Amino acid sequence: MGIFDWLRRSEPQDSVNEFAARHKWLAGGYGNSEDPADPSQVLAMQLVLHIEKKDPPRRSDVLAAAASSAVALCLDERCGPGGGWEQEFKAWSGARIRKVSRRARGIAWDAAQELPGVTIQSDGAEARAYVPGKVGELEQRLRKLQINGTDLVDDEPGEPDAAYPVLWLQAELGMTVGKAAAQVGHASMLLAGAMKVDQVQAWAESGFRCSVRDAGAEQWAGLAKLVRAGKAIAVRDAGFTEVAAGSMTVIAVPGK
Q1: What is the DSSP-derived secondary structure letter of residue 31?
Q2: Buried (b) or exposed (e) across 160-179, using 16+ Cβ within 10 A?
Q3: C-alpha distances in angstroms, 89 versus 73, 132, 137, 224?
Q4: From residue 19, how far is each of 8, 22, 26, 112 by CA, in Å?
Q5: For the chain, what is the domain count?
Q6: How many CB atoms lie within 10 A of CB 196?
Q7: CA-to-CA distance for 121 and 9, rounded, in angstroms?
Q8: What is the strand order of the sheet 233-236 is part of?
Q9: What CATH number corresponds to the domain at position 192?
Q10: Which of 69, 127, 175, 255 has the fewest Cβ atoms within 10 angstroms?
Q11: Could you list the residue range(s) of the whole structural domain that residue 227 is in?
């Protein structure tokens, strides 16, 4: 008996169908409409990374938490048909996908938990994805959080667990932790949309566990072959910040 067979037996059929409906919307891709003339009306998902001054999390772990939180919010029942976040989520995903990364520590992190979103923990790191909205109407508790001047040193996390998706960053781009967080958030969404619904359901049961790793030039070339073969998903940046438009920033490989 497979994982999905067990889920179908243990969960009400309505619950399975509702998850499938949410996945179908994500699998449909996202829009590419022109930005509003007024920049304050641009829609974005905020990603807040929990980074304390003392004993900060490992870069790879906090990026994994960011990736997991983004896809977890997209597939949350509140973003689905009839959910309280459906309107905001569909308006955002129907336009250009924008994410803004921020940092919180101490009481600011605690305060940020009070706003609508989904928090994910990954090996001691935490990140929270928020219901998308207009950047000009951002709630003050989020608006005051900044990512500028914050970075985490590269770490050596070892081999990733191939049972779960692995999101590979192109190391040569040298992206900041804020930029990388947004990019892996895109990658987790795209990967979930490309996977079969039963695979994504099983992934959801793990809390959307994943690994984030850096890939050097030689490894990146091999990963790009997987993309061309349809065995991996690539994120190509729009070029608004840090990297040139069209740059391939992340390659997401599904778990085994």
Answers
A1: -
A2: beeebbbbbbbeebebbbbb
A3: 9, 6, 15, 31
A4: 12, 5, 11, 27
A5: 1
A6: 12
A7: 28
A8: 211-215, 166-170, 248-253, 233-236
A9: 3.40.1490.10
A10: 255
A11: 3-253
Which helix (H) or strand (E) covers residue 85, if one does? none
Provide the residue-wise pLDDT of the chain in tens; the chain has 256 residues. Answer: 333 333 333 444 556 789 999 999 999 988 777 888 999 999 999 999 999 999 999 999 999 999 999 999 999 999 999 999 999 999 999 888 899 999 999 999 999 999 999 999 999 999 999 999 999 999 999 999 987 767 888 888 999 999 999 999 999 999 999 999 999 999 999 999 999 999 999 999 999 999 999 999 999 999 999 999 999 999 998 777 788 778 899 999 999 8
Q: With contact defined as beta carbons under 8 Å apart, do 251 and 227 qualify?
A: yes
Task: For the chain, list the strands marked E by DSSP.
Answer: 43-50, 99-104, 117-122, 125-130, 133-134, 166-170, 211-215, 233-236, 248-253
Nearest to 141 by CA among 112, 176, 102: 112
Query: Which one-letter amino acid corresponds to residue 230?
Result: G
Instruction: Compute the C-alpha angle 26/89/167, nearest 5°.
Output: 50
Which amino acid, residue 205?
A: E
Q: Say which residues have a Cβ less than 8 Å from residue 166's Cβ, sequence separation at least 6.
A: 160, 210, 211, 212, 213, 252, 253, 255
Q: Which amino acid is at 252?
A: A
Task: Decide: pTM greater than 0.85.
Answer: yes
